[in-house]
Amino acid sequence: MSYGDGMSGTRSARSGERRAKILRATLEVIAERGYRGASLAAVAERVGLTQQGLLHHFPTKEALLVAVLEERDQWDAVPDSQWRLDLLGSLVEYNAMRPGIVQTFSALLGESVTDGHPAREFFTERYAGVRGAMAQVLRAEYGERLPGGLTPERAAPLLVAVMDGLQYQWLLDPESVDMPGAFRDFLELLGAEG
Questions:
Q1: pTM of the model
Q2: Closest CA to 65 of 16, 100, 99, 112
Q3: Contact 41, 51 (CB under 8 A)
Q4: How far apart are CA 179 and CA 91, in angstroms?
Q5: Which residues contact 23 (CB under 8 A, 6 or more apart)?
Q6: Tens of pLDDT, residues 100-150
Q7: What does the alpha-carbon distance between residue 122 and residue 177 come to, in Å, rounded to a whole number?
Q8: What's the rounded Cα separation, in Å, for the pair 46 and 41?
């Protein structure tokens, strides 16, 4: 390896580390202030960069937001064919251990329903994919009809609504809402093995 190749690899590694720090800082700032209240200057200050230095890594606030959302989804990534109802319960338990991430995601989701929000397209596409994945999970568990008679496609949006709705209730009152327990109760309603 030549001297130049080693320097390039080191520079690339440092750039990757810096991007990861920026994404973590952005999550923190959004959790504290919401997307609209979060500024590039606040994120840059948190990671010890100038705003211009931050723009070197992410040219716009919208690009930074999409990178944060994509990174967050990677943390929970499971190939669609491997999702099962019991794994969904484990995901709910895992989310109960990381309130800051859940808060940021929920805040961005709530803001994204407004016209012109830069995350609207991301969440619209994400939810289409999540509903499809949940229909596959339900089909694998129950076949073409759930015990109550619904098809997996009709039940999938309900499953997603329960998961997201429990997150909001838990964020607002974590002492009163046992998010993992309530989700297990929901699975029992579906007829799944507890």
A1: 0.73
A2: 112
A3: yes
A4: 11
A5: 64, 67, 68, 71
A6: 778 888 888 888 899 988 889 989 999 999 999 999 999 999 999 999 899
A7: 29
A8: 9
